[in-house]
Write a structure and sequence with these properties.
It contains 1 helix and 15 strands; from the N terminus they run αβββββββββββββββ. By secondary structure, it is mainly beta. The model has no long low-confidence stretch (mean pLDDT about 85).
Length: about 150
């Protein structure tokens, strides 16, 4: 990542953007567009040295009321990533989330009335590299692993 004066200014703006939305975070290194942020009574904590890239597509990061979204230290999120917690999502230290990945802890709608949608926690361990598709709800991905979908 090229470190120019515009990069530092964008990172300061991005950090302020996160804090204005009630996210607990230290400095956010930001390249490209500001993310779409959503928070309504949720606990959202982001660790040190968080890097967000959104040159082509904006990222979306949010949590519903009562939910918990915890992102560890030195996490990198690439463009077009969507992270949405209805109950709980935890992402470990040194994790990298690839382009256009989606991490949800709920499918947000029921398939049939007999089986209502229920959020289930998603835990991604330390030092994980994840690419699309998204891990399913109630998923625990161990540390030091590479998660990827198949190529189309």
């Amino acid at each position: 990542m090229k470190k120019t004066i515009s990069f530092f200014l964008k990172s300061a703006l991005c950090t302020a953007w996160f804090r204005l939305h009630g996210y607990q975070t230290s400095l956010v290194a930001c390249e490209g567009q500001l993310p779409v942020l959503g928070r309504s009574g949720a606990t959202i904590r982001i660790g040190k040295r968080f890097v967000l890239r959104a040159r082509v597509a904006r990222c979306e990061i949010g949590a519903f009321a009562g939910a918990k979204l915890l992102i560890g230290d030195r996490v990198f999120i690439n463009q077009g990533v969507v992270i949405s917690a209805e109950e709980s999502i935890e992402i470990g230290d040194d994790t990298k989330i690839g382009d256009f990945s989606a991490i949800y802890d709920s499918n947000f709608h029921e398939i049939d009335p007999a089986h209502p949608a229920k959020p289930r926690p998603v835990t991604i361990g330390k030092n994980v590299w994840a690419r699309p598709p998204a891990p399913p709800p109630a998923c625990a991905i161990p540390s030091k692993i590479w998660v990827t979908g198949r190529n189309a």
